[in-house]
UniProtKB/TrEMBL annotation, chain B:
SMART domains: EFG_C. It comes from the Bacteria. This is Elongation factor 4. The lineage of its organism: Bacteria, Pseudomonadati, Pseudomonadota, Alphaproteobacteria, Acetobacterales. GO terms for biological process: positive regulation of translation. Required for accurate and efficient protein synthesis under certain stress conditions. May act as a fidelity factor of the translation reaction, by catalyzing a one-codon backward translocation of tRNAs on improperly translocated ribosomes. Back-translocation proceeds from a post-translocation (POST) complex to a pre-translocation (PRE) complex, thus giving elongation factor G a second chance to translocate the tRNAs correctly. Binds to ribosomes in a GTP-dependent manner. It comes from Komagataeibacter saccharivorans. It catalyses: GTP + H2O = GDP + phosphate + H(+). Its main location: membrane. GTP binds at D19, H20, G21, K22, S23, T24, N136, K137, V138, D139.
Amino acid sequence: MDGPMGREEPLALYVHWPFCLSKCPYCDFNSHVRAEIPRARFGNALRRELAHEAGRMGERAERPVVSSIFFGGGTPSLMAPETVAGLIEDTRTLFGMTDDVEITLEANPTSVETGLLRAFRDAGVNRISMGIQSLEPEALRFLGREHDAPQAIAALETARALFSRISFDLIYARPGQDARAWRRELDAALALVSDHLSLYQLTIEPGTRFESLFRQGRFHLPDDDDAAALYELTADVAATHGLRGYEISNYARPGAESRHNLTYWRYGDYLGIGPGAHGRLTRNGATFATRRHRAPEPWAERVERTGTGAHPEERLDNRDRAREMLLMGLRLAEGISTTRFRRRTGMTVPDATDPDILHAAIGEEYLVHDQATGILRATAAGRLRLESLLAALVL
Amino acid sequence: MTDTPLSLIRNFSIIAHIDHGKSTLADRLIQACGALTQREMTNQVLDNMDLERERGITIKAQTVRLSYPAQDGKTYVLNLMDTPGHVDFAYEVSRSLAACEGSLLVVDASQGVEAQTLANVYQAIDANHEIVPVLNKVDLPAADCDRVKEQIEEVIGIPADDAVEVSAKTGLNIEAVLEALVKRLPPPKGDASAPLQALLVDSWYDPYLGVITLVRVKEGRLKRGMRIRMMSTGVVHLVDQVGVFAPRMTNVDELGPGEIGYINAAIKTVADTNVGDTLTDDRRPASEPLAGFKPSIPVVWCGLYPVVADDFEKLRDSLAKLRLNDASFHYEAETSAALGFGFRCGFLGLLHLEIIQERLSREFDLDLIATAPSVVYRMLLTNGTTEELHNPADMPDQSLIEKIEEPWIRATIMVPDEYLGAVLTLCSERRGMQEDLTYVGNRAMAVYRLPLNEVVFDFYDRLKSVTRGYASFDYQMDGYEESDLVRISILVNQEPVDALSFIAHRSAAETRGRSICAKLKELIPRQLFKIAVQAAIGSRIIARETIGAMSKDVTAKCYGGDISRKRKLLEKQKEGKKRMRQFGKVEIPQSAFLAALKMDQ
């Protein structure tokens, strides 16, 4: 698919909906609470920004075809279904979509949102990612979620009747959660879903309520050794249910991986619209990092005035791209194709990495470099220590 | 001024343990003679340096000239030479003593004689001083004058019956001290018509006047406009000013025999004036110089490094400035693989080291790292030459060394007898040899010979802790002896960390090596790869610890919106790595070595 203009791959589209009913104490995403969510205004602004970005990518025939759409947030299940339908229709008209396009919407399992699932399916959504977070009542309270466990199970049942592809999130390594308790919860979760799970270890992000509580010593997290043990347990339990850890925190039956997210990790192109959304776009062989105004209302004002809420783009040089591709690609069990690495970054893996560390990391079995297939990948042990590995390895 | 007859001059110094009230007594004497009005008296006039006042110790010798109308109707000139109370400054003590004929021995009437008092008083006796015991703080309820007098007689061996009982704080009996000085101290001797012989007692740098030189005239006269010759170097200077400290600098025309004062002779740096040198008249020189002092030799060395590499130049300038006023302190540039660029510095002792370090941080605002202090070893090499070793990292290969000698000290420790057992144990752990053990009342005095090397390694701290701070300690250098010494290198992933290598007696090598490895294991954060920390003598490993690889370090979520932030974080980490020291494939933050060095002291 390599075109002369470097437009070699389909495009992933990310749509950010910045509003939530309440702010969760662990969340550092760009999410906001409003007394009245301005659904119509933001629906219109998103559609306008999408059209504007399409216009910047040349004539219809020159634009890439879209292979996935992801409605994220915030809580995109708070969007009007008509907005979702309109954005999907616009995408089809402005870019065209692949036959097997994957359209995911993040949803919370509260009753209101569950009631809208059918409308989202009718709008064209074909995959649901449910923010369950836990099946334990006490943990849900600690995590500040608006739903309870029976609601979560009911929401999953409703979704199962409507969608063939369902995923949900859980947060583990919570204060006081031991291996036995996590195994029990994870077994229960795996009985509810058959093809995809995102299992995140609880981390304390700067600027969150958890950060100040944690700093005050109001709760404690497992130490690194215990966290590592829980991580390994997670992979084992998922494997017994037929789910493979294909990324640090994502587990799927083979073939059921999130194609949209794979685009990020494989360092493909993606267009991000909506407040604070990031993108990576290739134009004439150069890669640009794009991002949009984070605050919802000022973003909307800019879109209404000029068609876009974008900040100036940052042109990424070869070194930047090599760093980004390594830090994303090594999260994947499949690793990085060195051929593709050269094509996407203009650099070779040896140019982009410290040879001594590469050698040592291979010796320590943190990395595998398969000369025959040209694949460089991190082993499970390497992925468990990926940040330190990257800091040492990446030049 | 000033043509004072010898019979009306008394030159004296004050010997006291820290906190026994020397400076307060000096202040009272100055006040009683009306040299300063009440309003002009700041507390402790003599201790000029902030650091001196704060620690209650005197570092540089100071002097003041007082005029005292005595009960016999005559007015006497009293020259008070202040002396440092600490052993590290024994050299400064000796030059002060050489300028005087007598000493006041100040002893706290409740505390009694302490180890430092002893060393100084013996020096004064050696200098043929008349000693006048003064019991201070007699107003305190715990004062026990009879017991302390008995102690002075027993321990020091001088009569204490007519000790003057005072309270410097309240001013009680200060007059009696002045009378005792006049009556009991001998006047100086000297011939005003003889060729000039003046002892160079001290010198310091004054930013306005240049180098000020403190002198004691022994024979002849020292006049303004005279061309004086330094007898050790033959260098000649023109005397611009002659003066006395009263206590402010006051110009006079000349100084006669027995007098103490200063000259200002357009001398550029303190290093051009050798303390102990004899000044004479260039036109009519003396045939012989006075008996000088032994020059001061640094006995303790350590590396000083700026925490921030950019401060290196500032450190160099600051050391140069300190050296202007303290010629006893030495420094030379050195490089450490672990710590970067710095200086190897030589000191008269541990307190001197501490004071210089503190002055650098306080007066020059420098954040410093000090390597573990080391003594000066003497190595006789197989090629027949002798070398002095100031830095363990420079030690030649064992096969090139015929034998090594280390410096020993003679230490006096005074301690309440309930702690004596602990002190004796500590001394024998440190290879000490008991020379003497005596009791006065419930206080014991132990005299030990100890290798200095064992004392620079946390001896003070241990002594303080096993005696709950009740011990007093003093030492003097006592020659070199051959010893079975080895250099212990600390290796991180097989690479030596120069700043952590040290020299120890073979018998202590393994224990110390093990303790440093264990400390480093605690201090070095776990890394991507496991780290071997070893202690070695030559190629033989004597201790080993392994720091396991970190178990988990990965962000749970990383999607399309996180890439830029993660890349920037990675770039920042690469910047941070520049401050790390690479050991094979691991980087160790400099802070770990700093912490190890801190724990060492």
